[in-house]
Amino acid sequence: MTTRDVYDVVIIGSGVGGGAVARQLAGTAARVLILERGPVLPREPENWSPESVFVDLRYRSAETWTSGERRFRPGQYYFVGGHTKFYGTAMFRFREQDFGALEHEDGVSPAWPISYGDLEPWYAQAEHLFGVRGQAGLDPTEPPRGAPYEHAPIPHEPVLADIARRLEAQGLKPFPMPAAVDFGPGGRCQRCGTCDAFPCRIDAKGDAETCLVRPALLQPNVQLTSEAYVDRLITDDTGRRIVAAEIIERGVKRRIRGGLFVLSAGAVNSAALLQRSATARHPRGLANSSDVVGRHFMNHNCTGLMALHPVKRNHTRFPKTLSINDCYFSDLEGKGPPLGNLQLLGKLSEPILRGAMPAWTPRVLRQWVAEHSVDWYVMSEDLPHRDSTVRVNTDGTIDLRWHRTNMGAHRKWVRTASRIIQRTGYPIVLAKPFTMDTPSHQCGTVRFGNDPATSALDPLCKAWDHENLYVVDASFFPSSAAVNPALTIAAQALRVGHHLRTEVLQ
């Protein structure tokens, strides 16, 4: 063991959670190491190639997971910056009511151990760090804000501006989707049309690498080791403290010792790592005396809609500018349980549609659909289910079982959203549900709470069972809400990082 293998803080994962904690600890006296299993994503022409990204799956992990007898290749991406290298830039705050218990058609979405007020200043800081563009005061479900957005929203292109007016004519309240994009005078965004699900080769997308990890690495106390897979965590003889992370770095196994460990590998892989680290004292895995680690997996209920007009062509280059929450807490009549959020998808292209449409579909038809479609994302809350699990197979691979909930409400929302879209002048609406193959909104597998008997983490994401282990990614979510999770992960991670800097590492 050398001194280079000993750190004050070891952060496992360089996505939003790990990156935000590192950003908070940058410039302190603590010696911080970020471990990332993937490499730095190369900046290359293929970044913007639909053929490379969607047909060749150039950047998707080659690993396979199981779901019982079924084997599949999940939509996992392992790079510095995590999944934000491929996300669609959506940066929503959870609604204030999302932090309390909410009655849904299929059951109750549980309350969080913290309130919206606890996160509001950290939401503001996260929006600042990511350069989020938006407009307050238009979303009917918008939670209280201490200040308006720092940056004006990305303006609608003509097709979408017309749709927004037609939505307003229906009595709805569309609003600009809050987006982390460096757009505007002097900004890097070129409206390339390849933002959602593509890496940005010009750093215009506000991802975790660009906004969190790189700035943290400018400080001498923060280091990054990429292509370092953490196989397990090692405890001391008492089982109360983590003393080392056993890693495999480019085929070589070694141990990294630390005073404090922050696990931010993503909801699936964080749960799996804790289970792989089982000991005689912790036979069900670390941080798991409550038996909740690897349970309550949630992933949102999502359906893609392609709205088609037989004559109109959609030349929009950056479509992620419009969203609707009129049915977030009820239906259009203000009755019934929550339905969810509606927002625009990135612009579909012919290569993207090859996997979504039947194999016999002629290329010319796929091209026609891509040119004439306006593409939407219908999202509803997935409620936690104890038997929605992440487990580790004997060969080390992941087994994911997802007991989907709230699907009746989601199907109603898809029907309602389709009618809303048809009334904007698009007579044909095609639907394509998302499956567990796309766990991009994975959450809930190492939930936090106020009771060690029913949660793995306390309200500051410290493991109840261990003195120096924090889990800071979407695995801490007790519920999924019905908007994108990235900003909420960032806000809580900044809050936790501030706590570590000011109270734990003093």
From TrEMBL:
Source organism (scientific name): Variovorax humicola
UniProt entry tagged with the keyword Flavoprotein: yes
Domain Glucose-methanol-choline oxidoreductase N-terminal: 187-301
Pfam annotation, one family: GMC_oxred_N
This protein's record includes keyword Oxidoreductase: yes
Protein name: GMC family oxidoreductase
Keywords: FAD, Flavoprotein, Oxidoreductase
Protein family membership: Belongs to the GMC oxidoreductase family.
Residue span, Glucose-methanol-choline oxidoreductase C-terminal domain: 398-493
PANTHER family: PYRANOSE 2-OXIDASE
Necessary cofactors: FAD
Lineage top rank: taxon: Bacteria
